[in-house]
Amino acid sequence: MPEVLEIETYRQLADRIVGTTITRGWADAYAAKKLSSRSSWARTVRDLTVTGTSRRGKLLLLETNGVTLGMRFGMTGVLLIDDEAGIDGLFYGPHSYRAEWVRGGLEFSDGRRLVLHDPRRLGRFEIDPDLSELGPDALSLTRKQFDRMIHIARGEGPPIKARLLDQSVVAGVGNLLGDEILFRAGIDPRTPTGTLSTQQRADLFRAFNQTMRTLMRRGGSHTGDHMEARFPGGLCPRDGAPMLQATIGARTTYWCSHHQK
User: Fold this and answer.
1) Is residue 92 pLDDT above 70, yes or no?
2) Closest Cα to residue 175, out of 234, 233, 224, 237?
3) Counting C-beta atoms within 10 Å of the first and last residue's C-beta, which end of the chain has fewer, N or C?
4) Domain ranges of the chain
5) Are 257 and 243 in contact (CB under 8 A)?
6) CA dist., res. 80 & res. 94, Å (int)
7) How many other CB atoms are found less than 10 A from the CB of residue 155?
């Protein structure tokens, strides 16, 4: 599933169309669900020139000389420019490409095409997307922003895994990254956020940044250290203890029964 690391790879691929002019846009009913109509995408994007790319968490942004164009990729969405994919290693992705899974895209004056390929039909196009609903970006999270992320004003707060997945608190962490960060930090994902000790907070911040750097270099969220044991009955690759499984923050979560306290 595309998380912040995959979307950053998509953004880098999209840099190739900076400076080109859009001649046509199209979207099917699924990709247009956040638009007023399918035709609004075609009308809005025509004759716009792409001036830059950016990203907030899992939201890819194409800057133009008019509006900002947004793309969300759901669980299986892949960005392609012509026949080149931004990434081909999505954990839950199809690992193949079919014309019937193309949900829409853009055509440019130089003949190239940018398309959204999405078998599960959860990807979306947006026009001038609202960024106020998103927290700070996970790839550039500062210690001050991290401290705000884990601050709980009242009570114990949600499990730390659910807190990491809350896009309004920090944008870009998905299920695989959340599990990997906690695996590296040695923290039980069920731990209420407000009860984390000073040492656990320091370990979590260190693991957060290390995970982002390491997995970005390796090629994506699916390259984590815990991935080989991410199945029922798996054994921790660090210490051989049984891996536990539960649903936390509405997502299937795996963690080590021994070193994650």
Assistant:
1) no
2) 224
3) C
4) 4-127, 138-256
5) yes
6) 14
7) 10
